[in-house]
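Pasting as-is:
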Amino acid sequence: MSEVYANRRSRLRDHVNAAGTAAALVTRPANVRYLAAAAPQGSVLLLGRQEDLLVCAGPPDDRPHEGRPDEHVRLHILPVNGPGNGGDAAVTAAGLAAAQGADSLAVEEHHLTVARHRAVASVAPKLRLSDLGGAVEQLRVVKDEEEISCLRIGAEIADQALGELLESILVGRTERHLALELERRLVDHGADGPAFPTSVATGPHAGRRGHRPTDRRVEEGDFLSVCLGATYRGYRCEIGRTFVIGTSPADWQIELYDLVFAAQRAGREFLAPGAAYRDVDRAARQVLDSAGYAEALPPLIGHGVGLEIDEDPQLAPAAMGKLDACVPVTVEPGVHLPGRGGVRIDDTLVVRPEADGGPELLTITTKELLAL
């Protein structure tokens, strides 16, 4: 794996040097992890003129699921006592860049606060600071097979946790209780933890994007929508399903579910290398729009996943760009009707060319409308 991380850093260094900058400072945690493997909280990565340094407030721990930093990156631990006590790793790294003879430093301005940016500038006033922009995020869009394997395992864990919940008694239990049980099951099955706060929505709450669970209890005849994800070795997947509780679905529930399912299928089928982001969104959105639900639609139909649960690309109406192979994305249309509830169906897939079988579905829990 060390070669993988070295190659990632080399690609970033080529980008930085092509822009006329001598060194780069990476501070966004997911980007540090992408370039240097596991790193203690608060660490920053300096791509220096002479060597690459991982600047940390303390030494890495030995928790198995965290892993260790790439052995080819030298650790620089901030001193416990002395001038560095309580210091900022980014500020220290800027000083180290200047000490290596760099005259310029690219920083992630979108991640640094104004105060932190000023502190970086003040510690090495002769350094010319420039914006690294989203260079690392763009490197992260296309995943290698090791990354996809982590996502695949995370999806299996999420499927397993959800499947076990569906076999239990649900009526009378609260949204909050069910969400906590799902998160416990994720960890029991080997996840680092949930990929994001688990959403369980019942009755009039069902179908809401990002619903925070409440003390509302599950009732007969409810729609129940669940959205959860597992983190495995840092990589995060996502799955969302909607069910009916206790009885046969009402006609309006079947109609709404079939419509959202058709929209989700249209979006999934449009996933292919070269497909425009906005066209994937349009494929799913048109199904719901044509049925009169334009105002009930989410702002985007899907997004990338990886070391963060919401990455590029964004599958949205105004998004620019086209899909590449080996890009994992969600397709998650939904409709929420105020006072009645709604439906959300969410899968994580990997874009694959038609010759390789088309998009690879990672989350395989049934999308049949089950009455539980």
